[in-house]
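Retro notes, structure queue

What went well: the backlog is down to a handful. What didn't: a couple of records were mislabeled last round, so from now on we paste the full input next to the output in the thread. Example, using Methyltransferase type 11 domain-containing protein from Candidatus Sungbacteria bacterium RIFCSPHIGHO2_01_FULL_47_32:
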Amino acid sequence: MDRLLDPLLRFLRVRRVRSYISRGAVVLDVGCGFKARLLRSLLPLISKGIGIDMDVPEGEEGNITLKKGLLEKTLDQETSSVDVVTLTAVLEHLQYPEDILKEIYRVLRPGGTLIITVPTWAARPVLEVLAYKLHVIEEGEIRDHKRYFWKRDLSRMLVSAGFKTEHITQAYFEAGFNLFAVAKK
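Corresponding output:
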């Protein structure tokens, strides 16, 4: 259930991601969430959207296909089959983030783009206060965080997955509490 600030934080992530999506792209949203909000917001822009999440209802709706799946080891997606993969507010929840990054590299077409948002270590105490004391963001989401990131942490994981350092750009946003990264295959 959304708390007071959850929709605003989601909106800020979507707005940032949207500017990196080319018209007609095939987009895979890993960890799309029950309502696949990011994919739905991209509908007029993309040719096809695929959402994978453990809680999503499977099926097709227009140019969106939703698949139920765990995000820990493999993706049910053909090799070199998508233009863009989005991974927004997901990587911090995974026990083995390196494995999913390798899978993302596999499914991206040559020249494809991975877009990631993750919370930084600076965000941890703020998120905990917002969740546990003020109750304005979802407590369960914060409790489920396995890790937080600095640029070097995420860069190491991306390089380990196959991305080249010179094709990775990163920037802090939301007052340094989140990290936005774009990696080209």
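Agreed that this is the format going forward. Reviewer comment attached to the example: Residues 34 and 56 are 4 Å apart (CA to CA).
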